[in-house]
From TrEMBL:
Pfam families: CBFD_NFYB_HMF (PF00808)
Descriptive protein name: Chromatin accessibility complex protein 1
Domain (Transcription factor CBF/NF-Y/archaeal histone) ranges: 27-89
Species whose genome carries this gene: Scyliorhinus torazame (Cloudy catshark)
Molecular function GO terms recorded: DNA binding; nucleotidyltransferase activity; protein heterodimerization activity
Protein localization: Nucleus
C-alpha cells in the first residue's frame, strides 16, 4: 500500500515515482541526438521526453535493420557487413527508402561498363520524353561542333 504523507493535517497517498521510460537507458548519446535534432531549422526547443523517445526509436530501428540484415545474410558468421545491410535494403520493401544511403557496392570496372552500355543506348527506353532528350543531345552536339570550328 502506498505510504501516506501528512500535509497540513491532511492525509493523502504519496505520489508513486514514475518509472524510468522504456526498458532501459538509451544506447545513443542523448547529446548527439539533440545536436542532430537541433540541426533542423524548424526545431527551436526539444523536450527531454521527446529527446529520449527519439533516441530510443532510433536505437530500435537500427536494431531491427541489423536483425533483418543478419537473418537474410544466409551465413553462419558472427559479423554483419556493409554488404549484408545493402542486400537487406535492396530486398526489403520496408527499408527501400534507404536505397540511396546504403547502395550495393560495385567495382569501378562494373560501373564504367554500365555507363558505356547507357551511352550505347542500353539505358534508353521508348518512354515519352526521350524524343526531347534526343533533340537536346543533337543541339549540344551541334554546339560542340560549332565551338570546334571556331577554334
Amino acid at each position: 500500500m502506498a505510504e501516506l504523507k501528512r500535509r497540513e493535517g491532511l492525509r493523502f497517498p504519496a505520489r508513486p515515482s514514475l518509472p524510468a521510460p522504456g526498458p532501459g537507458p538509451a544506447a545513443l548519446p542523448l547529446s548527439r541526438v539533440k545536436l542532430i535534432m537541433k540541426s533542423c531549422p524548424d526545431v527551436s526547443s526539444i523536450n527531454q521526453d521527446a529527446l529520449f523517445l527519439t533516441a530510443k526509436a532510433t536505437e530500435l530501428f537500427v536494431q531491427h535493420l541489423a536483425t533483418c540484415a543478419y537473418k537474410s545474410s544466409c551465413s553462419e558468421k558472427k559479423e554483419l557487413t556493409y554488404n549484408d545491410l545493402a542486400d537487406c535494403v535492396e530486398n526489403s520493401e520496408t527499408f527501400q527508402f534507404l536505397a540511396d544511403i546504403l547502395p550495393k557496392k560495385i567495382l569501378a570496372s562494373e560501373y564504367l561498363k554500365m555507363l558505356e552500355e547507357e551511352k550505347e543506348g542500353g539505358g534508353r527506353g521508348d518512354e515519352e520524353g526521350d524524343d526531347e532528350n534526343e533533340e537536346d543531345d543533337e543541339e549540344e552536339e551541334d554546339d560542340e561542333e560549332d565551338d570546334e570550328n571556331e577554334s
